[in-house]
Amino acid sequence: MVGFTAPMNMEMLARSLLIYRITGSASILGLMALVTAIPMLFLSLFGGVIADRVQKKYVLLAGQAGSALVSLGIALSLTLGYLSPEHAGSWWILMVASVLKATVQGLMMPSRQTIISEIVSQDQVMNAVSLNVLQMNSLRLLAPAAAGFIIEAFGFAPIYYITVGFYLLSMVFIALMPPTGMITLRGSGALTDIKEGFH
């Protein structure tokens, strides 16, 4: 799970700092937070349906691949010099990237949260969940701090190349996992399943 948590927290800091340096606008920074929150809020409902119907490891692989591509796009935009304060209008790249990342995270979140109980034995679930919570909370502190030092020393681009590396490495480990859980085959549509989830 480090391959999810570390890059997410590093990019949250980098993205916020970068868009503020480019625009100098607290309003645009707030707008980016909004467009990030909305897809994660609503698409996680569809993510739950996907988790029931598709092998979770494949959902995670697709999500990590999508995240890696978005991060690589930002990294290349920084390296080529387009995404910078010198190009004040370039902030749209970060806005689009935020929406894409939030979409991926929202669809992937239910699979990520439930796969733990399927890859460890029943008597180890509580220990696994506790360790997962520990690493999440630790990386919420350590990853942004590390990102801050890297940005100060080397700029923003290395952050995104590093996160691409995290995503690709996590994909290797996910690919090595055996298929997990049972796939639910239903004749009902996704919206029907979502409605049932509220009952």
Task: Please bin the fraction of helical residues.
Answer: over 70%
Structural class: mainly alpha
Number of strands: 0
Q: What CATH first level would be assigned? A: Mainly Alpha
Q: Nutshell version of this structure?
A:
With 199 residues, the protein is an all-alpha fold. 80% of the residues lie in helices and 0% in strands. It has a single domain, classed as Up-down Bundle (Growth Hormone, Chain: A), CATH 1.20.1250.20.
Write the layout of secondary structure elements.
Blueprint lengths: L1 H22 L2 H28 L2 H24 L11 H24 L1 H4 L5 H30 L2 H20 L13 H8 L2
Helix pairs in contact: 1-2, 1-6, 1-7, 2-4, 2-8, 3-4, 3-7
Structure characterization notes:
With 199 residues, the protein is mostly helical. It has one domain (2-114, 126-194): Growth Hormone, Chain: A (Up-down Bundle). The protein is 80% helix and 0% strand. The chain has eight helices and no strands. Helix 2 packs parallel to helix 4 and helix 2 (26-53) packs across helix 8. The longest helix has 30 residues, at 125-154. It is globular. The two termini are 31 Å apart.
